[in-house]
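Protocol step 4 of 5: obtain the predicted structure for the target chain.
Materials: sequence only (see below). No template structures provided, no constraints applied. The aim of this step is simply to have a reference model before the mutagenesis design in step 5. Sequence pasted as it appears in the construct record:
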Amino acid sequence: MLSRRYFKILTLIFLPIAALLIALGIQNVRTAPSKGSPTSPSRIIARKPVMAETLPIDWNQPVCIIPTGNNQRFPLALTEGDEYLLIINNLEQAPHRTQTVHLVAEFDSVERHPTGCYFQNTTPLSQTSHVGHRPALSQPDLSSSRPTTSQPTTQQKSVTSERSFYLFVTDGNLSDRNQYTRITGRLVQDSPRVAIYLDEQQKISELAPGLLNGIIETLEQQVLDKITRECGPIRDIDQDGRFTILLSPWLSRLQGGKTSINGFVRPSDFRETVSEPFSNHCDMLYLNSALKPGQELLDLLSHEVTHAAVSSLRADQSNSPATSLMDEEDWLNEGIAHIMEPGYTNRDYRISEFYRKPEAYPLVVPDYYRAQLWRNHGCRGAVNLFLDWCTQIESTQRFPHRFTHHPLTGTPKMEQLTARPFPELFRLWSLNLAHQALTRKTLDPDTQPDTQPETQPESGSDQPPWHCGKFILAGPAFHSWDLFKEPRASLNIASTASGFLHLKSNNSQNGNVTINVNGSPKMQLTLLKIPHSSNRLSLTATQNIPSATDTTLAKFLNIRLSCKHPADSTVETISLELSGTYLSRAARQPRLFQTSSLNSLLISQATSLEVVTDGTYQEGENRVTDFLIRIPRTILRKQKTADSLTFKAIAQTETSKRMAAQTDFKLDAQPAQRLAETSKPTKN
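Step 4 output (structure tokens):
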């Protein structure tokens, strides 16, 4: 009886404990993380729309416009002087395709609630915020057990005095071996980790003074160790203990003489399974023999050696052929190489070109050559800014290393590196670009450098935020749409590009409007309310048609640049540059002018570009300062690929705040007719 009594007591005690343990086990199973493949694409959980009635919208934050049907339309209540920025992302990934987006504004006397869509706030990531990354991915070890060229081996082989290299020089098919030429290179200089070969068709005496020593010293002292540390090692493919450089004049006349480049790396050279002439089976890069030592050489070598590290890591077959990875997609390969450049000489003009027309340049381009976007400066500027932004939101501060060692490529790679779906990532980056444009309209730098814009350092150190190398940056250009004056608008947007539409309303009118957006089904819309402020700078460029008795029209292009700025400010700097998709850095000829040193009269017989002031007057709460620009047409004829003139300006207020703005002036093929003073399309 006693044992039965004890048994009942123990049963009463242990049954609740067992039930509690079972409940805890079930809860753990429900909340345990998935043990799926760490390299598989992340799953996106679809949630039901949160309608505006259940989630109040904060219009001081960006607002996502999410359609619930096939039509993209949304209501907007406008009060006096309201301004918005509509960001249209084209998420279609077809680099050769551009989508025309048509917009129609329908006015109503009654305020409408969202139907067929819902609004949802999104908070843009700050430059210093940390992205909540997933746990570290268990990726394959891409570091090779073979020797690398990052550190010299104790017993180095003697360098071969002469080598043969194959180079693609025509505009034909990359897969056709007949499009390649064989080059004989002679060893002209070497060091413990570098061997330089010169194309036999050229003499050493024809090279720029100091070029050979500059290449050796730059690689040995500044580039190889940095790239190895931050990105990864370069495998010694040909087992000679050195990284090979081929200097050749062929790089000045590639694609049948149509293209000149400073340098490149061919990923197939790092793949031992690729046959000649498609691979030289060598860890190497190609340089134009016309190069000169200096900052441009440092930036170029940093860029190309990054390509070599990426190609080496992804072609590693030290264990088995299965361990090698597909080549990095071109847009990411170029992007990581650009952000490893210490200066701006290889990217300032590309960023400027992208900012000039952000809707025209796709971000995601797996193969630039096949998409006919090879060396498209706007595309390269886009990916430079995108990966630079990804680096700034990186929590571990090791983005380049994580990037180069990640086994995936393309948008899946970026989704895993940032722990965000690509559409969301693209939206946040677009908001960051918009923020740059809006903040550059009211800059408040902590310090002002002593140097003038003409003498700003190329390295990027000590430069104010509106300068990038030789170029002024004003952020991405906005297209203006005054809803009350013109109810219709359209915009051409390339795939994975963004259009920025500045929605304006009349200062004296209120209204309720529904905006219909007709375009690609893969569009995503974001609305940003622009705070009321008179501290803005805007530019307008129009052709200044001379009188019928003036005979200078055939010789000069005359332009009036009107700068509208706050009443308590003055325009201190204006700049002018030639623009075009494939226009080189040198051909853009950026010119900066300090307004305090400008004359007030044009010299009628001037043979060079002239800029003069033409007065200042009051317009409402603002002031307008006019400048006259006279450009000899001989300058324009020399740059046939230039399609626009880009003007930029910086104004400073009495409280030392600065504003930057830009506008484009489209170049005509023929001199304008003296019929009327016609305005050119402008952006602000």
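Step 4 remarks: The two ends are 96 Å apart (CA to CA). The CA atoms of residues 17 and 23 lie 10 Å apart.
Proceed to step 5.
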